[in-house]
Amino acid sequence: MIVDITPKFQQDGSSATTLHHLNLLPKTVQHNLLVKWNKDGRHRDIEEVLESLAHDPECSDMVKKAIQDITSWSSITQSIKGILTAGVIKSIKYSSRKVKKMLTSMKK
């Protein structure tokens, strides 16, 4: 007789748990979510946005996009600084590697 002793894990996917995790996100990510959520012209506060987002089936995609927006802006500014300090040719080589890496990660 074979007994399976492999541990099993379950993740609570409730909106209450999702809201808890949204509240633990860095303020910059929360702010990006707020801006995206209020694009319709309404002005909701962060608590209302996070509560609504916790019930939204697209929540994880929206959080992912908010984080990507932050990291892509950082990459752009680093590339500009590199052009000014390292020279054009080195900067183009470096930036092209970074863009390739970013595009590869976005496909995942």
Walk me through what this model shows:
This protein has helices at 15-23, 27-37, 46-55, 59-86, 88-107. With 108 residues, the protein is mainly α. The protein is flat and about 60 Å long. The chain starts with 14 loop residues before the first helix and ends with a helix. Pathway: Phospholipid metabolism; CDP-diacylglycerol biosynthesis; CDP-diacylglycerol from sn-glycerol 3-phosphate: step 3/3; Lipid metabolism.
Short description:
The protein has five helices and no strands. With 108 residues, it is mainly α. The longest helix is centred in the C-terminal third of the chain and has 28 residues.
Name the features:
108 residues; 5 helices; single chain; 0% strand; mainly alpha
What kind of oligomer do you see? single chain
Query: Total helix count?
Result: 5
Name the helix and strand elements from N-terminus to C-terminus, one letter apiece: HHHHH
How far from one another are the termini? 40 Å
Task: Describe the main β-sheet briefly.
Answer: none
Shape: flat
Percentage of residues in strands? under 5%
- Unreliable sequence segments: none
Rounded to an integer in angstroms, the radius of gyration calculated over CA atoms is 20 Å
Structural class: mainly alpha
Would you count the extended β strands for me? 0
Mean pLDDT: 87
